[in-house]
Amino acid sequence: MNSICTVASRCNVKLYIISSYRKPGSTVFGAIVQLATLSNHNVGHAIDMSVVYGKDGTICNSACLGGTNLSGDIKCFIDGVKQNGLRWGGNFSTKDLVHIDDILNLNDLARYKSLYTTIQQQC
Ligand SMILES: [Zn+2]
């Protein structure tokens, strides 16, 4: 979140957080797990957000984020997030325009699984 907030501040936008950590259903990790099921939301490493921009605090939601005429401040934010090594859902094959994560599920599966186990015991 620090990285995301730093970029947001630099790009003169604020974020309206829609969702962050999500408690998964009754899914239990087995030895083999489909990557598609390893949401970074389940370990608190993803957010869904709308971008608040402009002097009047206009909210840019999913429909807006998918538009072709994004404000420069929003482009700055999206580009900056990606430059910081984070992943924007707008680049997914099935676009998830409000989503940002740190790719933990793909970059460090062992840590993801460890966090998942710990969090399930604590939350
Ligand atoms: Zn998401």
TrEMBL record:
<dbReference type="Pfam" id="PF13539">
    <property type="entry name" value="Peptidase_M15_4"/>
</dbReference>
<dbReference type="GO" id="GO:0008233">
    <property type="term" value="F:peptidase activity"/>
</dbReference>
<dbReference type="InterPro" id="IPR009045">
    <property type="entry name" value="Zn_M74/Hedgehog-like"/>
</dbReference>
<dbReference type="InterPro" id="IPR039561">
    <property type="entry name" value="Peptidase_M15C"/>
</dbReference>
<feature type="domain" description="Peptidase M15C">
    <location>
        <begin position="37"/>
        <end position="101"/>
    </location>
</feature>
<protein>
    <recommendedName>
        <fullName>Peptidase M15C domain-containing protein</fullName>
    </recommendedName>
</protein>
